[in-house]
Write a structure and sequence with these properties.
The complex is a heterodimer of chains A (149) and B (271). Chain A is an alpha+beta fold. Chain A has six helices and five strands, in the order αββαβββαααα. Chain A has a five-stranded antiparallel β-sheet. The longest helix of chain A has 20 residues. The termini of chain A are far apart. Chain B has a six-stranded antiparallel β-sheet. Chain B has a two-stranded antiparallel ribbon with strand order 7-8. The radius of gyration of chain B is 22 Å and the shape is flat. The chains are: A alpha+beta (149), B alpha+beta (271). At the A-B interface, helix 3 of A face helix 10 and helix 11 of B.
């Protein structure tokens, strides 16, 4: 896994990459870490909630591309976790996505990687159970339902 | 000593590493990795006998590996190659590589960028100059508006070949260069660099390997879907085009192989 993250981090305009479980806990990060662990964890948790909410609303997607004024974030769903690639705004995202596809295919065929991810398995439906959802999740949920995305 | 030898090229440069293997009369494969790039150097009883990198072999592959500023290495003793593409000792290879780097630098001083726009001088610096027919084709197309990269595209030259011609013409004092600032292409879309016919030739080959004989149709459909033609597709849209085509390949193995080929091609174009 570390090698795959290193490969992604070597792409021009990519700052680094990391994998979180569905709760947002960082499983592994490129070295040196692109962000503080607490920041990566917060990002992973929020993206995990979005993925879970989309899945629960029947609009699941395997890839999310967040564009901000100064940077971009590619999030790829790994089922048992989420791969996050942190990039600057001028990145060639197609190039990054194709590289990520190659890395992910390797991971899918690697039993060690799968076991490592499964050790962190947190079922998504637990995260989107309405009774367990906090205010932020409920707000995000309502926004998704209201906008029909 | 070499069993399991591995480490970082930033800490032990390739040349030092090969000297160590040479001094120990080692035989085996030295695998180098830098990002997604992988290269191999084979040594036989301490002598370098073969190198591979990015689809090239021999001296050129070795020269390319020497330029990697960082990466990792792993020496695997006992692995040999049936190919013998290098016969020169390390010192000669190093000297040739340094000479090639020096020549590249000399060219860069004359032609700093293929985004630059060549413009014919108003007066010749001498009474008479002999111009070869191939060079005249280039001079005749210089209109003071077209960049070197676009001239190469229009004339069907590979950029390195074009640059070699231009170095000769520039040294003869036949044209001046206007260096275009990086912000200029954004203001002037006409100066955007194009993907070019060589790119499409390579792309169609890769698509044919992955998807069969309809490759040309698939590529043209994808280009059209992006609102371009082969003649107008800009260079900065090629990744997007390749990704669009890759999405059409349902078989994982074929898609990954296609993407690996394409990414390798894009990296070498960027280098």
């Amino acid at each position: 896994m570390e090698q795959g993250l290193t490969q992604l981090s070597a792409i021009p305009h990519v700052g680094g990459a990391f994998i979180c479980d569905n709760r947002g806990d960082v499983i592994v990060s490129s070295s040196p870490a692109v962000l503080a662990t607490v920041t990566m964890s917060a990002m992973g948790r929020e993206v995990g909630r979005i993925v879970a909410a989309l899945e629960a609303s029947g609009r699941a997607g395997s890839r999310l591309d967040f564009t901000y004024s100064n940077w971009r974030l590619l999030a790829v769903d790994l089922d048992d976790g989420i791969l996050l690639v942190v990039c600057t705004a001028d990145v060639d995202m197609s190039f990054v996505r194709m590289n990520a596809d190659i890395v992910l295919t390797g991971w899918r065929q690697d039993g060690t990687v799968q076991k490592r991810l499964q050790r962190h398995r947190v079922e998504r439906h637990e995260l989107v159970n309405r009774s367990a959802a906090d205010a932020a999740v409920r707000t995000a949920w309502r926004a998704i339902e209201a906008n029909g995305h | 000593m070499a069993e399991g030898l591995s480490g970082s090229l930033a800490q032990i440069p390739l040349a030092d590493l090969l000297r160590m293997l040479g001094a120990g009369a080692q035989t085996g494969r030295l695998r180098l990795t830098s990002g997604l790039d992988v290269g191999d150097v084979f040594v036989d009883r301490g002598d370098i006998v073969h190198a591979e990198s990015d689809g090239t072999m021999g001296d050129s592959a070795f020269g390319r590996l020497l330029t990697w500023p960082n990466g990792t290495f792993m020496f695997e003793p006992g692995i040999t190659s049936i190919d013998r593409t290098i016969e020169k000792p390390l010192d000669v290879l190093m000297a040739e590589s340094a000479k090639a780097a020096s020549e590249r630098e000399a060219i860069r001083r004359v032609i700093p960028s293929t985004d630059a726009i060549p413009r014919l001088v108003r007066e010749l610096p001498m009474d008479a100059i002999t111009v070869e027919a191939g060079d005249w084709r280039i001079l005749a197309r210089m209109d003071g508006r077209t960049s070197i990269a676009n001239l190469a595209f229009e004339l069907g030259f590979e950029e390195p070949e074009m640059v070699r011609h231009l170095v000769r013409l520039k040294n003869a004092g036949l044209f001046e260069l206007e260096i275009v600032q990086s912000a200029a292409p954004a203001r002037e879309p006409a100066q955007r660099q194009l993907a070019g016919p060589q790119f499409f030739q390579a792309l169609i080959g890769a698509v044919a390997d992955a998807m069969g004989p309809l490759a040309e149709v698939i590529v043209d459909d994808a280009v059209e879907g992006m609102g371009f033609t082969r003649a107008t597709l800009p260079r900065d849209a090629v990744s997007s085009l390749c990704e669009r085509i890759a999405a059409e390949i349902r078989d994982d193995t074929h898609r990954i192989r296609f993407q690996q080929t394409i990414l390798s091609m894009l990296r070498s174009r960027a280098a």
